[in-house]
Sequence to fold (690 residues):
Amino acid sequence: MPEELTYRDAGVNIDEAERALRGVVGDIQATYDQNVVAGVGSFGSLYRATFDGIEKPLLVSSIDSIGTKTRVAAMVGDYGGLGYDIVNHCVNDILCQGAKPIYFLDYFGSSRLEATLFDKIVRSMAQACQENECSLIGGETAELPDVYHQDEIDVVGSIVGVVDFDRKLPRGKMKPGDALVGIASNGLHTNGYSLARRALFEVGGLSVRDGVPGLGTRIGEELLRPHRSYLHAVYPLLQDTEGIYAVSHITGGGLYGNLPRVMPSDVRAVVERRTWTPLPIFQLIQSAGNIPDAEMYRAFNMGVGMVLFVDRFNAPAVVQRLHLAGESAAIIGNVEAGPRDVQIV
Amino acid sequence: MPEELTYRDAGVNIDEAERALRGVVGDIQATYDQNVVAGVGSFGSLYRATFDGIEKPLLVSSIDSIGTKTRVAAMVGDYGGLGYDIVNHCVNDILCQGAKPIYFLDYFGSSRLEATLFDKIVRSMAQACQENECSLIGGETAELPDVYHQDEIDVVGSIVGVVDFDRKLPRGKMKPGDALVGIASNGLHTNGYSLARRALFEVGGLSVRDGVPGLGTRIGEELLRPHRSYLHAVYPLLQDTEGIYAVSHITGGGLYGNLPRVMPSDVRAVVERRTWTPLPIFQLIQSAGNIPDAEMYRAFNMGVGMVLFVDRFNAPAVVQRLHLAGESAAIIGNVEAGPRDVQIV
Fold:
């Protein structure tokens, strides 16, 4: 007869999961607005579907993860920004449809649930939710030692937001002559980390502690800058400006992959590279890995986190409003006639 | 100067992801109901928040994964039930609040996106969504070779459902004397796979091709039975029966962990083991791994997939209705006075 076997012997520690959750429940509950009826601990989280001032409400949902940015966090030993990464990524995605977030759920997969690490990430998620006026109403942890490499995690988020049917994006008719207004990113956000790590650390032989040429910062610091949320800069604009036809979040696939997602089939986008300078971290990744230009623009945002498709006459005012909101923004190209395509010239 | 590096060299194949998605987009779109305004391919999926006949709608949300059931699927080479697993798990979770599902999103994390495997899982997800009258409106794939072991996957789902505020569960006052009505599971559903695999395949030295004593089936077949959905049996009951106070989905933590989630603090649940016989697969897992009884009831559902807390006078009729709906169901215990607790006697 073999020795007695327990769930914990098999790599799953239910007590640890419960303990970890108790540590952050206060932070989570601090994100609840008055519409949360039941949150963490319930089989399902309950949220009132009453949206004041929105006549024909649409729910807008998205799900995503932050990919191997988690590995850079492990290399640096700083997990405190990853919650912002997943929340802000999701917030920006539904902003492309004109929505403001209402609530968020997270999934935390790991080889082994490490309470202090979980704590840091969920606290930063809760903070990010508060900053985006979004309730963190549910989540799940899973310990899967046979699926995840040792000490590895996957952080997944699912968001629900709301927009009025008549204000949903894309809206109106995008046409030749419209302007592309780009808003600056602060780094890789949450995309391209597998390529960046390969280029910097394997091919280039660099470390997270090495400096970034031209900046007084280290590679680890630049790579870990949290994904920015464009909600507070862009959402008000969408409410009072009629010339904005579409919004694109520059995530995996870069400008090439994400601009067409909001474009009709009869226009192409022409992006002019001379209108901005890619952040130094992208230059370093490219030179370290000897990555072709086109591949860089396909894997990374290259310094442009969000693009608004704006009527040419409204574009200067939109840029100015973004500046007033603290964003770095510029007209980075325009819409031309032709089959749907993106050209970066 | 090193050779040119591409995103694909770093283990991320965007083309493969797009190709894989194109293969299943028809199945996905077949799940859309008339409320889906924008689905797969959008930054956010759009769904009309108009719920006919529901006066005070609450959105009910949950997120979960199917854990290492994926590893058994790999051992057997059959991934066709995993979509049912994740969808039905989520459907049952929100059913515990009285909700019916409206839409579902999935996240598919992997070491390397394998199109045929992805295809099988998403198709079964789409089928499960149709059977639960739920639209599969969005999803995401991620290739994370440095996070996942080779050929491993994590399948995560996020669901949104709706319930009227006045019909949400738990409701009414659970009290001593109420009955616990258990509905049969068909196996492990999606919980306890790390322990089951350890017990059967490592400690016990068995294989997925070995037979289950007392059944004419193989271990692999029993372990892969898809998580059942109780929506069609239980949801109608919730609409026309007043004596149902709470519903508990028996997932990770078993009866011990899941009954208290829906119980007030002044009652305890007493479950009588003699009222049902655990499925043969649980007996085999226990004997192979020499797992203590209490641990079995904490890791597995032991043959009870869902428990309804029902007024004692309504309980026989509820059991009969469940039988008519094709379920195997029985009174498996009752509610007694005392601090919140679960006793399995």
Notes: The longest helix of chain B spans residues 115-131. The radius of gyration of chain B is 21 Å.
